[in-house]
Amino acid sequence: MRRTISRWRHAARTCGRTGLTAVLSVAALAALPAVAHARAAGGPAVNGRAAAHELVFVRDGNLLLLRGTTEKQLTTGGGAGRPRWSPDGKRIAYLSKNRLWVMNADGSGRRDLGAHASGGADWSPDGKWLAFAAPGCTGGPVVYRVATSGKARPEVLFPAECKGQPLPTEKPEPARGGTLSERIAVDDAVSWAPDGKRIAFRGGMCESIYDACLTIGTVADAGERAVATFGGGGRQSGSATVPAWRPDGARLTWTASASAKLTVIEYDPATGGKRTLGMPGDRELSYRTARTAYLTGERDGRSWIFQLDTSGSTRTALRQGSQPDPRP
Question: Which residues have CB under 8 Å from 140's CB, separation 6+?
Answer without folding.
Answer: 203, 207
